[in-house]
Automatic annotation (TrEMBL):
Belongs to the ABC transporter superfamily. It is a peripheral membrane protein. GO terms for biological process: cobalt ion transport. This is ABC transporter ATP-binding protein. Part of an ABC transporter complex. Responsible for energy coupling to the transport system. The gene is ecfA3. Residues 4-239 form the ABC transporter domain. InterPro entries: AAA+_ATPase, ABC_transporter-like_ATP-bd, ABC_transporter-like_CS, ABC_transpr_CbiO/EcfA_su, Co_trans_ATP-bd, ECF_ABC_transporter_ATP-bd, P-loop_NTPase. It comes from the Archaea. GO terms for molecular function: ATP binding; ATP hydrolysis activity; ATPase-coupled transmembrane transporter activity. It is found in: Cell membrane. The lineage of its organism: Archaea, Methanobacteriati, Methanobacteriota, Stenosarchaea group, Methanomicrobia. Pfam families: ABC_tran. Keywords: ATP-binding, Cell membrane, Hydrolase, Membrane, Nucleotide-binding, Translocase, Transport. The keyword Cell membrane applies.
């Protein structure tokens, strides 16, 4: 049984326009890291909003732990699947950071002691100790994003879905955020699903990659399988990450070097190609 599964999922915001999602088939399993790539307007955000019942399909189905989302189980679904919006201002609104992180757990009906324990834990995990008494609207975009993630994580979901989590972050912020997200499956048993334009990081932190174009899934596979498909990447306005792009250029110039997609594999390929191993 998959944690999340869509079957021929279709969605349209108006009967007068084409489907925003068309026959989308997607699965997420336990402790996976799943990247969803595609240009703006591909339907990534719309797909994500189906995962915890914010919007409903026009046709097809969305299953969470094998069950359709209904009014009766919507509360449990939203405990199980946490969604972090692209714009943290849509999610961060309390008087202080501490109150904002506590908002979700209190809405689950948890007692004050449990809420306080969860708030302390996630504030520590995300390095928000110095901000816990600050007003969220005084924070930077990167800080607000961390608060939004902390608020969702405090609800202890089994699936965390992040819509363009790197939007508005500087390079150091991107590195820190992805380092944190990369550790979540092993540390907390959480499945992480995210959309991003930062293809450089995908080989290091995705087990499965989905590519979307015009509301459809056009490719699915491991990072290596996806990044081997140049036509697929071109249609989705995506480029190879820098390391495999460099290696491919060297191969095209007749240099015998093995293909690689992560830093560690690329290092080994270079050492082997130039006789250092």
């Amino acid at each position: 049984m998959h944690l999340i599964e869509t079957r021929d999922l279709c969605h349209a915001y108006s009967t007068s326009v084409r489907d925003v999602l068309h026959n989308v088939n997607f699965v997420a399993d336990a402790q996976q890291r799943i990247a969803v790539l595609g240009p703006n307007g591909a339907g990534k955000s719309t797909l994500f909003r189906h995962f915890n019942g914010i919007i409903q399909p026009k046709s097809g189905s969305i299953l969470v732990r094998g069950e359709p989302i209904t009014k009766a189980n919507l509360h449990e679904v939203r405990k199980f699947v946490g969604l972090v919006f692209q714009n943290p201002d849509d999610q961060v609104f309390s008087t202080t950071v501490e109150q904002d992180v506590a908002f979700g757990p209190y809405n689950l009906g948890l007692d004050a002691e449990t809420v306080a324990s969860r708030v302390d834990r996630v504030i520590s995990m995300l390095g928000l100790e110095d901000l816990r008494s600050r007003a969220p609207h005084h924070l930077s975009g990167g800080e607000k994003k961390r608060v939004a993630i902390a608020g969702v994580l405090a609800m202890e979901p089994q699936v965390m879905v992040l819509d363009e989590p790197t939007a508005g972050l500087d390079p150091q912020g991107v590195k820190e955020l992805f380092g944190f997200l990369n550790d979540l499956p092993a540390q907390c048993g959480v499945t992480v699903i995210y959309s991003t334009h930062q293809v450089e990081l995908v080989p290091e932190m995705a087990d499965v990659v989905y590519v979307m174009e015009k509301g459809e899934i056009t490719g699915v596979g491991t990072p290596e399988e996806i990044f081997l498909q140049e036509d697929l990447l071109s249609r989705a306005h995506l480029e190879l990450p820098a390391l495999p792009r460099l290696i491919k250029s060297m191969q095209d110039h007749g240099i015998a070097i093995e293909s690689a997609y992560t830093y560690r594999d690329a290092e080994a390929a270079f050492l082997k190609a130039f006789g250092k191993t």
